[in-house]
Amino acid sequence: MGFVPDSVNRLIEQFAKFSGIGRKTARRMTFQVLKSTDESAAQLAKAILEMKTRIVFCDICGGISEHNTCDICQDSKRNTDLICVVEEPADIYAFERTNSFNGVYHVLGGVLSPLDGIGPDDLNINSLVGRVTATCEVIVSTNPSVEGETTALYLAKLLNSKVASITRLARGLPVGGDLEYTDDATLIRAIEGRTSI
Amino acid sequence: MGFVPDSVNRLIEQFAKFSGIGRKTARRMTFQVLKSTDESAAQLAKAILEMKTRIVFCDICGGISEHNTCDICQDSKRNTDLICVVEEPADIYAFERTNSFNGVYHVLGGVLSPLDGIGPDDLNINSLVGRVTATCEVIVSTNPSVEGETTALYLAKLLNSKVASITRLARGLPVGGDLEYTDDATLIRAIEGRTSI
Q1: Which whole-number Å values give the CA distances from A78 to A26, A97, B24, B34, B52, in the listed order?
Q2: Distance CA A129, CA A124 (A)
Q3: Are the Cβ atoms of B42 and A54 closer than 8 angstroms?
Q4: Which of A117, A126, A157 is nearest to A140 (CA)?
Q5: Is the pLDDT of residue A36 over 60?
Q6: Chain A: closest CA distance from residue B144 (Å)
Q7: A–B CB contacts, 8 A cutoff, strictly below
Q8: If 0-12 CB within 10 Å is exposed, 13-18 middle and 19+ buried, where does residue B39 land?
Q9: Contact residues, B window 120-159, toward A, CB-based 8 Å cutoff
């Protein structure tokens, strides 16, 4: 866009970098910042910088925290024999929102992906091996993608002899889903994993 | 969400303030900032602050600019007898993207809205009156909303004797639209404004 001042264009570019935010939304956001007070724009900028300064990775699980050990790992009511292994810190909060998981987490920081050059040494796998005990159940909760499945199989092989059990989240029909629009791969998993009623 | 560090929650709140950005998107954006390098987060914060510092309103049209007079008002190739009156600076760029308008702009900074207590003195109407000449065509390009129409009528009455002509953008079927799904008000305008072929 000609005639848009450079500093406006730069902010549009910055917002458009977010995945899921297209140029139109980025433009609308930018003009909203422009219309807002100097104070609220400063608050937004401050929130970004402050978060980046304060947040560190938890020593134990690799999740995010403002302390060296995160609130979940510090919580004595949590069952440390139940370890949910996830790809990213954000995945933790998907579980936490359900209020139905009482174990602890371990963040891999990604998945195995030979094509992108990401091997076991690039993930928090060593710290997971050091953490598990013979009484542990490890729930491998990587995403149901090719890389997620590969990582789950790798972890299963690695930890098999070291823990009580290794499980994977159930695959099947999503709640509220529609059989007619369910893809073949999901339906195959749903048949394989059928449960008695 | 319990267990999400405060500084993360604060940034989620800030992103969720944008219209059209829900909490889910705000959360995803926040975790993307968290994953990004310190440098790119700093760039985003800098772009916000820099834009707010640098952008001023053009002395002539009320549009946005990094100088006292915007690039469009400074452009000697523009037809200053054709003034397109818009609500917000962002509207200018909608016209500029079409590459088919060679006149200049005037930004009202809103629309008349008695319910919200916004009267003529709250908008850039005086500067518009001071700007028009007897050879001007004024295209009132406020949005096709109740307030936009009211503002257009007010401006028409005010400027009628001062300019050569006052026009309003055509209302009718949007290009690519579908008759079946067109609302009644639009269809009535399309019939009223029918053109010979």
Answers
A1: 41, 16, 27, 26, 46
A2: 9
A3: no
A4: A157
A5: yes
A6: 19
A7: 151
A8: exposed
A9: none
Rounded to 10°, the helix B38-54/A38-54 angle is 170
Model's pTM, two decimal places? 0.82
Closest residue in chain B to residue A50, using alpha carbons only: B7
Which chain A residues are within 8 Å of B5, Cβ to Cβ?
54-55, 64-66
- The conformation of residue A113, written as its DSSP 8-state character, comes to B
**B50/A4 touch (CB, cutoff 8 Å), yes or no:** no
E-strand spans in A94-180? 103-107, 137-140, 165-168
In B, minimum Cα distance to A70 occurs at B3
Q: Across the strands, what pairs with B85?
A: B106, B140
How many Cβ atoms sit within 10 Å of the Cβ of residue A79? 12
Interface subset of A 87-116, CB within 8 angstroms of B: 88-90, 92-93, 96-97
Chain-chain contact of B29 with A21 (C-beta, under 8 angstroms)? yes
Question: Mean pLDDT, to the nearest integer, of B30-53?
Answer: 94
Residue B1 pLDDT:
46
Q: What mean pLDDT do residues B99-120 have?
A: 93
Specify the residue for token string 């009211």.
B150
- Rounded mean pLDDT of A22-38? 93
* Owner of token pair 């499945």: A149
Q: What are the Cα distances from residue A111, in Å, to A92, A144, B54? A: 15, 11, 43
User: pLDDT-based confidence at B152, cuts 50/70/90?
Assistant: very high
A41 closest CB neighbour out of B21, B33, B52: B52
Residue B2, pLDDT score: 56
Ordered domains of chain B (ranges, CATH): 6-54 (1.10.8.420), 74-196 (3.40.1360.10)
Say if strands A137-140 and B64-65 run parallel, antiparallel, or are unpaired. Answer: unpaired
- Chain segment A136-193, per-residue pLDDT in tens: 999 999 998 999 999 999 999 999 999 999 999 988 888 888 888 888 888 888 888 8
**Position A1 confidence tier, pLDDT thresholds 50, 70, 90:** very low
